Fold this sequence. Notes:
Layout: H1 12-21, E1 29-32, H2 39-48, E2 53-58, H3 61-73, E3 80-84, H4 90-93, E4 98-104, H5 119-132, E5 133-142, H6 150-162, E6 169-174, E7 185-190
Parallel strand pairs: 1-2, 1-4, 2-3, 4-5
Antiparallel strand pairs: 5-7, 6-7
Helix pairs in contact: 5-6
Bound molecules: S-adenosylmethionine.
S-adenosylmethionine is lined by residues 34, 36-40, 57-60, 63, 86-88, 104, 106-108, 115, 117, 121.
Amino acid sequence: MTVLMDKDLGSAVYLARILIAECLFPGGIAVDATAGNGNDTLFLAREVGPAGRVYAFDIQAGALTNTALLLKQSGQAGQVTLLQAGHEEMERLVPGPVDAVMFNLGYLPGGDHGVITCPAATLKALHSALHLLCPGGRVSLVVYRGHPGSREEYEAIERFAMELDYNNFRAVKLNLLNRSDHAPVVVIEKVKSVQNSGLNSF
Ligand SMILES: C[S@@+](CC[C@H](N)C(=O)[O-])C[C@H]1O[C@@H](n2cnc3c(N)ncnc32)[C@H](O)[C@@H]1O
């Protein structure tokens, strides 16, 4: 497991990576639903290695340029497919099944803070991610709060996760208890023995 960052329970990204790394292996398949500056794409690329594949989405060309550069500098570009498309297109563009999907919501750090993820597209993509996920696979969402629309997005995700059928999915939330503005992490696991393929259960 190469989580690629300092051990710090105050970091939502660190928490997400620990739980995602557990379901990845050399040759695995992963999706970065929000490539941004490429840090999570690089993490996923290292976890699945040259025999694996990572599909990385972003709607901004500049984000994918940054991601491509980071991957090239790190020698991990070969196993990554960069897609300039909304993650709501995931089911059309990614051949499943996949082992893990990561969402890191909000705006591009260092970029235009007006371009943000939005609840409708995020929920559509989350729905697709759960369809694509193999049994035992996991989806993580780091949900920043503080920018306009972020609370609505967080509440929509939480509602969606709370309504998932426990027979087919486990949904957890990780939250710092002693800092109220911390970005919560939601992780959803598809159980190993899904009933009715789990597809009609949400
Ligand atoms: C917080 S950043 C991601 C950070 C990234 N994971 C990293 O490691 O650097 C959020 C990204 O989501 C992208 N985004 C917004 N709406 C999107 C959509 N519908 N589909 C895919 N990406 C989207 C933004 O362009 C932005 O780059």
